[in-house]
C-alpha cells in the first residue's frame, strides 16, 4: 500500500500558531526594550484582553518566550519576565573575556575584504541606531558584530556558547549603554577593532576587545549594585 499522506494541520491550529507567533514577537520587543522589567508578571487574561484574542495563543506565546529565556513560568504566578542577578552578570562577562579575544586571534587572520566591509557596515548601522536612540536594535546589532568578528575561528562549540552569552546579556548591555552614557565609547571601540584587524594588528585588536568587554561588564555590575542598594 502507498504511504498515507501526512495529516494537514487543522486551520484553527494554524491560525493559533500564526497569532501566537505574532503575540510572542510583540511581547519580545516590549521585554527587550525594557517596557516589561524583570520580575513583572505577564497575566494571560490581561494580555488576552489587550490583544483581543483567546488565552490559547497567549499561552503558546508565553511558552515560546520561556524557551527563549525571556520569561519563567512560575507556579501560582504564571509567566514572569526573567532577569539576571549581579553574580550572573559577572559570570557572563568573565566568560566572554576568556572566550572572545582568543577566538578573534584565530578568526581575524582569515578575514576577506568582504568580511571587513560587512563588519564596517555593521558598525555604521550600530552607530546610526545609537545616535537615533533606537534602543531595541542595539542588542541585535551588537550581537551580530561580536559573532561576525569570531565567525572564522572554526570553533563552533565556543561560538554557540558565546551566542548564548550575548543573548543573555542583551537587555543588561542596553541598560549599561543607556545608564552609563557609554554609547559613543562602544561605537568608537567597535570601529577601532575592525580597523586594527584590517591593518593586521590582530593582537592589539584582541586586547581592545578584551578591554571593551571588561569595561561593559564592570560598568553594568556597578549599575546593578547601585540598583540593589537603592
Automatic annotation (TrEMBL):
<dbReference type="InterPro" id="IPR011711">
    <property type="entry name" value="GntR_C"/>
</dbReference>
<keyword id="KW-0804">Transcription</keyword>
<dbReference type="Pfam" id="PF07729">
    <property type="entry name" value="FCD"/>
</dbReference>
<dbReference type="GO" id="GO:0003677">
    <property type="term" value="F:DNA binding"/>
</dbReference>
<dbReference type="GO" id="GO:0003700">
    <property type="term" value="F:DNA-binding transcription factor activity"/>
</dbReference>
<keyword id="KW-0238">DNA-binding</keyword>
<dbReference type="Pfam" id="PF00392">
    <property type="entry name" value="GntR"/>
</dbReference>
<protein>
    <submittedName>
        <fullName>HTH-type transcriptional regulator McbR</fullName>
    </submittedName>
</protein>
<feature type="domain" description="HTH gntR-type">
    <location>
        <begin position="17"/>
        <end position="84"/>
    </location>
</feature>
<dbReference type="InterPro" id="IPR000524">
    <property type="entry name" value="Tscrpt_reg_HTH_GntR"/>
</dbReference>
<keyword id="KW-0805">Transcription regulation</keyword>
<dbReference type="InterPro" id="IPR036390">
    <property type="entry name" value="WH_DNA-bd_sf"/>
</dbReference>
<dbReference type="InterPro" id="IPR008920">
    <property type="entry name" value="TF_FadR/GntR_C"/>
</dbReference>
<dbReference type="InterPro" id="IPR036388">
    <property type="entry name" value="WH-like_DNA-bd_sf"/>
</dbReference>
Amino acid at each position: 500500500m502507498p504511504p498515507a499522506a501526512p495529516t494537514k494541520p487543522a486551520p484553527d491550529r494554524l491560525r493559533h500558531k500564526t497569532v501566537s507567533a505574532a503575540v510572542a514577537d510583540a511581547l519580545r520587543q516590549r521585554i527587550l526594550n525594557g517596557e516589561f522589567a524583570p520580575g513583572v508578571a505577564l497575566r494571560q487574561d490581561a494580555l488576552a484582553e489587550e490583544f483581543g484574542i483567546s488565552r490559547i495563543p497567549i499561552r503558546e506565546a508565553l511558552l515560546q518566550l520561556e524557551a527563549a529565556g525571556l520569561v519563567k513560568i512560575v507556579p501560582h504566578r504564571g509567566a514572569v519576565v526573567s532577569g539576571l542577578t549581579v553574580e550572573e552578570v559577572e559570570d557572563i562577562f568573565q566568560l566572554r573575556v576568556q572566550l572572545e579575544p582568543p577566538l578573534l586571534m584565530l578568526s581575524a587572520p582569515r578575514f576577506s575584504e568582504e568580511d571587513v566591509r560587512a563588519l564596517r557596515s555593521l558598525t555604521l548601522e550600530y552607530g546610526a541606531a545609537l545616535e537615533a536612540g533606537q534602543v531595541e536594535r542595539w542588542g541585535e546589532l551588537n550581537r551580530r558584530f561580536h559573532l561576525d568578528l569570531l565567525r572564522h575561528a572554526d570553533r563552533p562549540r565556543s561560538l554557540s556558547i558565546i551566542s548564548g552569552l550575548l543573548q543573555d546579556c542583551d537587555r543588561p548591555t542596553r541598560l549599561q549603554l543607556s545608564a552609563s552614557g557609554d554609547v559613543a565609547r562602544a561605537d568608537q571601540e567597535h570601529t577601532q577593532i575592525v580597523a586594527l584587524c584590517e591593518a593586521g594588528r590582530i593582537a592589539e585588536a584582541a586586547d581592545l576587545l578584551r578591554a571593551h568587554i571588561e569595561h561593559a561588564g564592570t560598568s553594568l555590575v556597578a549599575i546593578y549594585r547601585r540598583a540593589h542598594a537603592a
